[in-house]
Amino acid sequence: MTENTQSVWTSGLVNVDWLSSELGNPELIILDGTWSVTQGDEGLPAGIIPTALKFDLCHLKAESPLGEAYPPSDILLTMIQSLGITESDSVVIYDRHGFFSAPRIWWVLKSLGHERVAVLQGGLPAWISAGHDTMKTHALPKPQSRYTASPSLVAGATLQSVLTAGEQNIQIVDARSADRFFGRVKEPRPNLKSGHIPNSISLPLKSLQDEFGDVLTGKQLVSVFISAGIDMSRPIITTCGSGVTAAALALLFHSVGKMDVAVYSGSWSEYGATDNPVETE
Hints:
Number of domains: 2
Distance between the termini: 50 Å
CATH architecture of the largest domain: 3-Layer(aba) Sandwich
Shape: globular
Mean pLDDT: 94
Number of strands: 10
CATH superfamily of the largest domain: Rhodanese-like domain
Helix content: 25-40%
CATH topology of the largest domain: Oxidized Rhodanese, domain 1
Strand order of the largest sheet: 1-5-4-2-3
């Protein structure tokens, strides 16, 4: 792989030029991690990046008990092994939205201790915009592998972690839109309250993307964090609707070297269904 490869795995982000230069590398596995709240693909670009395998995030979410800090390792290992992935492989994940569900798969692989895993900035839209070819079908996986997990490289949070965050000097940062955060609109999932966890900070994922949909990086990204009221010296729990864009926030914090960030996978799907306090405007 190219000489800047180590920085790729450190930041957790790759760009289209890097992926294009590595396409066909036998040491690299590409995963299509597209997932939508409504499970529809209306408005999403068609096509698949060459050699990409399909990672079924919908299945993993369905098999993950609400409220657990991490996805069930047995289910996750079965999925990983069925794709022929080993712990020594390098993995790049993208989605058809651009930057939405792929970071959740980055996070779950990190929960298995996988070191060389990153997300494609801009996803499939950026790949197509750069003029690269696509396929109509996903590639076939290699023969089933044996994957040996290592200690998690990321942190997970539970409802109890959230309820005691203030006592622990932990900030709660919410990736949902401002309208959902402030309770101006109904939640897309049924039987959930509108609003946000008391004392949490609104940081919509889209506020961390430029006009082309590319995520901000480096000092520009840190500047937005600080402007949102985030203290970069204090630990963070990220939350969203169901743990997907919360993982995207965790990846972006990770990309600038902030590692004391836990993802609340239950997020509003769990908290919004409880009798715990809720704040709105």
